[in-house]
Write a structure and sequence with these properties.
Elements: E1 5-8, E2 15-17, H1 18-25, E3 31-40, E4 46-59, E5 62-71, E6 76-77, E7 80-81, E8 85-88, H2 89-95
Parallel strand pairs: 1-8, 2-5
Antiparallel strand pairs: 2-8, 3-4, 4-5, 6-7
Length: 104
């Protein structure tokens, strides 16, 4: 299945909304954290991260296995719908993903 991803070098974590996860994979399969924590989006909005799941993300035929945080309240920023998954710098560093400002 194809999804829209945002590669965010300013984000230290990879995150997906719980709702989108359920749409793609069905309910469950994640682990609920004993103690949730909060993170901040680029617009300063605070989101609660209380679930994690290990996903295989395939980019250009390359399989990336990583922990993805799930949040019930990450759906839009400043009135714009977010992509299906935000891939943070930790995942990019782990797999050597570099963004080119010219080529994308």
């Amino acid at each position: 299945m194809r999804t829209q991803a945002l590669f965010d070098t300013g984000s230290s974590f990879t995150v997906m909304s719980t709702q989108r996860f359920i749409e793609f994979f069905g309910s469950g399969g994640w682990r609920v954290l004993k103690k949730p924590y909060f993170a901040y989006l680029a617009n300063g909005g605070k989101i609660k991260l209380d679930k994690v799941v290990t996903l295989t993300i395939i980019i250009d035929g390359n399989e990336l296995v990583d922990v993805v945080h799930l949040s019930d309240n990450v759906t839009e920023v400043e009135g714009q719908k977010l992509p299906d998954i935000i891939i943070g710098s930790g995942t990019m560093d782990k797999y050597g993903i570099e963004l080119d400002p010219v080529e994308g």
